[in-house]
Specification:
mainly alpha, 3 helices, flat, DUF3613, signal, DUF3613 domain-containing protein
């Protein structure tokens, strides 16, 4: 788990640095400045900050991920989601 958190943090830092080094991103179609969220999505889509080193997942971890994925289909998707609201006075 610690290794996964370190990978996530290093990815976050490298993406943040890549975003800081670039000029403000604009939408090619409209010429408008992109929001920070849109900039993150564009950076991920483009692969500009992708690692050049493969980061394989061990067989044991992949097996666990696949089992969790398959288990997610056991519970039906509800027609509507009930919204929980708290009332504070």
């Amino acid at each position: 788990m610690k290794y996964i958190l370190l990978l996530m943090l290093s990815g976050f830092l490298s993406l943040s640095n890549a975003m800081a080094d670039e000029q403000p991103a604009t939408s090619p179609a409209e010429g408008k400045a992109l929001s920070p969220t849109q900039q993150w999505l564009e950076l991920q889509r483009s692969g500009k900050s992708a690692s050049s080193h493969p980061q394989p997942i061990s067989g044991e971890v992949m097996d666990s991920v696949h089992k969790r994925y398959l288990k997610s289909f056991e519970k039906p998707i509800p027609e509507l989601y009930e919204r929980e609201t708290s009332t504070t006075h």
